[in-house]
Design a protein that fits this description.
Keywords: Coiled coil, Kinase, Membrane, Phosphoprotein, Transferase, Transmembrane, Transmembrane helix. By secondary structure, the protein is of the alpha+beta class. The protein is built from twelve helices and seven strands. 73% of the residues lie in helices and 9% in strands. It has a five-stranded mixed sheet. Strands 1-3 form a two-stranded antiparallel ribbon.
Amino acid sequence: MFGISNRLASGKSRIGRVLVGFMVLGFLCLFVAGLAAAWAMRENQRHTDSVAHTYEVEVALDRVSVLVERGETTRRGFLLTGNQVYRDNYDRYTRDLPPAMARVTTLTSDNPRQRANVADLRTRLSDLLALRTRSFAMIDAGRRSAALIAFAEEASSQRLLGIRARMSAMLGEERRLLAIRDIDQRRSLQLFYTVLSIAGAILLVVAIVSLLTILRYTRDLASSRDQLNRLNGTLEEQVAERTADLSRANEEIQRFAYIVSHDLRSPLVNVMGFTAELDSATVPLGELIDRVEERAPDLLTNDMRLAAREDLPEAIKFIRTSTQKMDRLINAILKLSREGRRVIAPEPLDIAAIADTAIAAMRQVIDDRGATVTVERPMPTLNSDRFAVEQILSNLVENATKYLQPGRPGRITVSATRMRERVVIAVADNGRGIDPRDHQRIFDLFRRSGAQDQPGEGIGLAHVRALAYRLGGTIDVASRLGEGATFRLNLPATFQNSQDSNA
């Protein structure tokens, strides 16, 4: 008997260390995978911006090309026919050309090669426009024949070919840059998938080893249980001794949960404290950035500015959100472990009065959510632990008000019936309901059902079930989606302490 207890104690310590280590490793893998995903998204966005920029340059160059070609066509039409429509169109295309070139200049200002190409293109366009201006000046002076002769002798076609070649070179430069960026994106994606694969493999190994560890511990527990069953047919003293050992083992398991949660809290507090210090440090850092930006802006890059004003505060906010969630989960585990050690104190209870008290405590929340809670009377008497029953009813009523069906006034009913030596307390609502596949999992710790649009960590119903078990009862649910839910708490009419009955 003592050997079983010793094995449980040593196994608890060993498995606790293993599981905590694997939990930390898994969290690190998830953190690295998250960083890799954020980096890949940033790289993908940069590539998308580059592609969009290339298309903008192409469109701008096409616009300049169209204006130049149409300007030459209308000039020739006016020289040959003297039709004023050609002259008007030429003037319009000529007016539109400078804004189009300004657009090209703006889009390509970040590339030294393109700036050189733009400068050469402007020179060629200036020479071409000068020729066109001389042609129209001759015509305006009544020298059409001289204008036609000059037109036949000028090298405008060669100038157009040079302009086209320069714009083709600019398009080629943009496509060259796009090809380089495509290669960089493929490399970044390959690195991202490599990181994800490694993280996934580590997580898989962690999951398998954790599962094997738990299975081994479960087999040890099963073996201990079998030994207890084999010893069950011996003397009455041995039965009492085994019962005492089992009670101690249960207490050790509860202490184990408490110790694990307590040990997790210590590094979590450190993380929260250092995060607060980092958050405080962002204020003087921001002030420093402001002073540098005011007094020496050439020392400050855009990446530095974004890192100080956006990236760092956003990262601190993410860490704080994660640590706060972990803190709530640890508090829930500690609460459950403490509840398991609390001494049950049975007394005669008025279930209706307890329900009224629970409803009054959350009256403001019930009214804010537009719900109506009814307590059906009369109710049978119950001899059990007041604090535990109050907590169960409070959790069930609060859950019913939390998951109401939108557009339908909430109606919640609390009732109780006597069934032989047991009392069944029911909390029924007309809310959104629960998928039948989730009827069991909602009572598991940290498990929830349906849309996760309400605050909570999946702790309340697990706590309710733990309390029901301690009172010698059970809890179940009957529900269908869209048709509300009814939670049934089945308790002995008179609580019997196992130690008292053994005595």
